[in-house]
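A quick aside before the break. I want you to see a complete sequence-to-structure record at least once, exactly as it would be stored in a machine-readable document. Don't worry about memorizing anything.
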Amino acid sequence: MPFLSEPAFKHDQVARLGVLLINLGTPDAPTAPAVRKYLAEFLWDPRVVEIPRALWWMILHGAILRTRPKESASKYAKIWTKDGSPLKFHTERQVSLVKGNLGATIKPSALVAYGMRHGTPSIEEGLAKLKQAGCARILAMPLYPQYAASTTASAFDALSAALSKMRHQPELRWVKHFHDHPAYIEAVAQSVQDYWLANGRPTKLLMSFHGLPKFSLERGDPYHCECQKTARLIAEALGMKPENYLVTFQSRFGKAEWLKPYTIETMRKLGKEKVNRLDVICPGFVSDCLETLEEIAMENKAAFLKAGGGEFHYVPCLNERPQWIDALANILRDNLQGWLPNDADRSAADAAKARAIALGAKQ
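That is the input. The structure line, written in tokens, reads:
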């Protein structure tokens, strides 16, 4: 296999630290062709759909990609903004803000880029951007608080594939999850507290996480357990009793049994019970996206109200909240320990450069 060309080596170039933030991805536009292209990549990932490839190819191309793109495009159109996809522009803003945050404590500052597991820019493009900028050590962090094979492991697969094309690979570290990191839990709890301070408190708080097929739990995926732990820690930080909050799972796809209870069914149940006010948060997402803005704040809200519920409040994701940017930077710094530059590193680099020049190397 031919390897990618390497950037030109310069003796005066100081090796930099790089951070690659990874998110799931989004179509490039709220149109059926763009959504079809995105879904074709996303749903063909063997980590996402664990069905024999030949059978799944026929189902995917024979049925799903013929009908689902138009339906999904109409949903994306409801949340699309002048800045484009919410998931993408929130991720871009997080990259910019966390770079500035890290720059206040790391000299020379770490370079920060991002890549999408599905869609653009790809993980390979994000990694190449950091390598071209001279990053010899790269910390990769998927922006999924809870680990799942279909998300986190899939991102690592793509990162490994990108590294396999490189002749001179950088050192790599990997953040597996941060579902129970104190800074993340505090950031989520504070966002809820701030919302309640401005809007009052609910009768019930519902924490909705993205769903997975039930067999993922049975085969050893830790996702379900990590979601439960995240919810418990958030509830404890908010001083809530178990009877005042619920944990559910959304975004079910196909006919197989998924992790329960299902969010949409719980919405209808709470509506029938005439719950006076329901607040909903999505602690499995750090950026608002289709699953939060359309599925929860529109579709599930309608189901709750139609069933007879009272007020419905969706509390936005962390997005660019300052406390989340601080938390994200803290998680990154925790995982950069031992890599952070110091005076000894800089002195050694200067000495190595001087020796190379003395031996006739070109600058």
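Two observations worth writing down. Strands lie at 16-23, 111-116, 135-142, 171-174, 204-210, 245-250, 277-281, 311-314. The chain has twelve helices and eight strands. We'll return to this after the break.
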